Amino acid sequence: MSQPFKDPFNIFYFIGFILVLLIPTLPASLSWLKATGLI
């Protein structure tokens, strides 16, 4: 556990965890991108 990034699966779990945390912010992010004209 002291070197979690030696295992590639731990990186995928970490990315998945961050994506789950970002799901509630998706509508706000999309509306912000539309407001700035990036979409």
Could you walk me through the main structural features you see in this protein, from its secondary elements to its overall organization?
- This protein is an all-alpha fold and 39 residues long.
- 67% of the residues lie in helices and 0% in strands.
- The longest helix is centred in the middle third of the chain and has 15 residues, at 8-22.
- The model has no long low-confidence stretch (mean pLDDT 79).
Task: Produce the secondary structure layout.
Blueprint: H1 8-22, H2 26-36
Mean pLDDT over the full residue set: 79
Stretches with pLDDT under 50, minimum 5 residues: none
Question: Which sheet architecture does the biggest sheet show?
Answer: none
Give the DSSP E fraction (strand runs of 2 or more residues).
Answer: under 5%
Gyration radius from CA atoms, angstroms: 15 Å
Q: What structural class do the secondary elements suggest?
A: mainly alpha
- Helix and strand string, N-terminal first? HH
Q: Termini distance?
A: 41 Å
Concise account of the structure shown:
With 39 residues, this protein is mostly helical. The protein has helices at 8-22, 26-36. Helices cover 67% and strands 0% of the residues.
From the structure above, extract its key features.
39 residues; mainly alpha; transmembrane helix; transmembrane; membrane
